[in-house]
Amino acid sequence: MDMxxxxxxxxxxxxxxxxxxYQRRGLLPTPNGHEGVRRYDxxxxxxxxxxxxxxxxxxxxxxxxxxLDLDAGEDRERARSLARARLEALxxxxxxxEAARRSLEKLADECASGKTxxxxxxHSFGV
Length: 127
Fold this sequence. Notes:
This protein has helices spanning 5-11, 16-24, 42-56, 61-73, 76-113, 120-124; strands at 33-34, 37-38. The chain is mainly alpha-helical.
């Protein structure tokens, strides 16, 4: 599988500029061009998909770079450590979002039950 940057980006469900950005950040290699056209292979695509999945899991680009570097050296302990740290950060964020949801549900109920005066939702946000 040999792809131009456009086909490679499409296969990875990203834009061409995203591919170039990842290359500048050292997450993706910039392949050598043959006759002025750079070609991407299946390994490049595997790496691109990994980057996207890791971002979805909440890893920063720096953490993703560390994971990619660890993949080459097979340092499972460090990879587990990074994953556990990400899990803890996600747990904190989920708790924050759940608290925000409960607060908004309460405000929405208060807004629905009151017929006069300012809306509690608008009032709580300082409007």
